[in-house]
Structure formats: structure tokens, C-alpha cells
Design a protein that fits this description.
mainly alpha
């Protein structure tokens, strides 16, 4: 049980809360665009077709994986539930996005570059290292796991 407790150890800092909430909102919203077509997104079909067109095959499955990681991972970050594993999955998702989509366009968002993805990657990696912090559901879980 101590291995599980170490994985979900939230730490005691407040800074994770300040990072978790906006990252969770951003990731969940982007995932909702991919999965459900909310907020001007294209949904699974449209996102899957686009992913296939850039070589991420099978496109529908890749859209489902990326959208699910972002939507559910974002919700997990927002509530501080399994923060470290969720952040790890989101960090991996951002690495794929940066190298599959944005790296050839340079740094800046104005050119569809990797600037935003890099910022999200840095935030996710920070949460992998720090945990969910205070006011997270991980805090409750660690009390339950003895």
C-alpha cells in the first residue's frame, strides 16, 4: 500500500492548487472540443479525420485517446484526484502534440507553434513532481490508504 500512497502523495503546498485549477479547466475544455464538439471543436469524427490527415493513424482512435486524456485528465487535475498519474498522461499527450503538430511551426502560437503546448507540458510535469497539494481529493485518498 505504501507504493500507492507514494504515487498519490499530494504534498502540503498551496502552489499545486493554483496550478491544478487553470490547467484542469484548459485541458478539460480542449478534450471536450475533441470528444463532444463543444466550444467550437470538431468532435471525434472531425478531429479523427484531421489527425489521420497529419499521419496520426488511426485518426478516430487517436482523437479518442487525446480527447479522453485531456478531458478526463483535466477533470482529475481540477479536483486533485490521482493528480500525479493524470498529469503524467497529460504530459505525454503534450509531447505528442508538440512533436506531431507544432514543432515545425516554431515557438510562437501566432504561427501555430509549440508555445502553448510547452507551457501546458511544463505545468503537467510540475504536477507530476509536486502532486495535487492541499485541497485535493488525493489528500483524502492518502488518509484512507494506510
Amino acid at each position: 500500500m505504501s507504493a500507492i500512497k507514494n504515487i498519490i502523495n499530494p504534498g502540503q503546498q498551496w502552489s499545486s492548487l493554483v496550478l491544478r485549477v487553470p490547467l484542469g479547466i484548459i485541458f478539460a475544455a480542449h478534450g471536450a472540443q475533441k470528444l463532444f464538439g463543444w466550444f467550437g471543436g470538431y468532435g471525434l469524427e472531425g478531429t479523427g479525420q484531421w489527425m489521420a490527415s497529419i499521419g496520426l493513424q488511426p485518426g478516430y482512435l487517436m482523437a479518442l485517446a487525446a480527447g479522453s486524456a485531456e478531458f478526463f485528465g483535466g477533470l482529475f487535475l481540477l479536483f486533485g484526484l490521482l493528480t500525479r498519474p493524470a498529469a503524467l498522461v497529460l504530459a505525454f499527450t503534450m509531447v505528442v502534440a508538440i512533436f506531431a503538430v507544432h514543432i515545425g511551426n516554431g515557438l510562437f502560437m501566432s504561427n501555430n507553434g509549440y508555445e502553448f503546448g510547452l507551457a501546458l507540458l511544463a505545468g503537467a510535469v510540475s504536477l507530476v513532481l509536486s502532486g495535487g497539494g492541499r485541497l485535493s481529493l488525493d489528500t483524502i485518498l492518502t488518509r484512507q490508504v494506510k
